[in-house]
Amino acid sequence: MSFTVIFKEEAANDIIDAHNWYESRRVGLGDEFLNEIEEYVKVLENDPQIFR
User: What letter does residue 8 receive in the DSSP assignment?
Assistant: First the structure.
């Protein structure tokens, strides 16, 4: 059974802010950050009990 991860507006805004901050440090770093978020979301969707 697969689940859907839903981000609250505040969390989504934090992710955008973090992306922009990382991107200001090095071009492409913000995208790497988003890729990591996506990977963890996939893990959570497939096994939501993995993290407490």
Answer: -
The answer to whether the CB of 35 falls within 8 A of the CB of 22 is no
**Alpha carbon distances (Å) from 2 to 17, 32, 40, 44, 46:** 29, 25, 14, 9, 5
Mean pLDDT of 29-43: 97
Q: Cα dist. 15→3, 20, 49 in Å?
A: 21, 9, 23
* Mean pLDDT, the chain, integer: 95
Domain boundaries along the sequence of the chain: 9-46
Query: Looking up tokens 């959570």, which residue turns up?
Result: 44
Q: pLDDT per residue over 21-34, tens digit each?
A: 999 999 999 999 99
